[in-house]
Amino acid sequence: MMSERRTIIGLSIALGISLIINVAVLGIASGRHWLRPPEPQKVRFLDRFPPDIQGVMRETFRPRRPELVQLRRGVVEARARVTAALKADPFDHAAFVQALEQAHAASDKVDRLYQANMSDLAPRLSPAQRSVFADHLPPP
User: Fold this and answer.
1) 135 backbone dihedrals φ, ψ, rounded to 5°
2) Tens of pLDDT along 111-140?
């Protein structure tokens, strides 16, 4: 009888400790999920500007959009070639340098298209809009 009582008390203590540990682990896990800071939202380039300027930007950029999509795809592919060249075994330094140059050239094409868009956009904006536009450009 005494032995059974000790067993029950021992099991009750073990169960209580196990329950406390489980609640603590659950609390830590849920706290990490619910209390972590939200991930920053990506801000589209266009969303940086006031609505009246966004409209002019859309009108100006629309004709070049298909070309921009194609050029961006080229940048992604070129960067993938850089990654592949880095991971290649054996490492081919010449192939890596060539991939870097191709990635630079692809990025340069995108930059030139954006510059052409900006060149077409600026004269369509009023002086006040150009000032606001300049204030909303990303930092250099």
Assistant:
1) -70, -25
2) 999 899 989 999 999 999 999 989 988 777
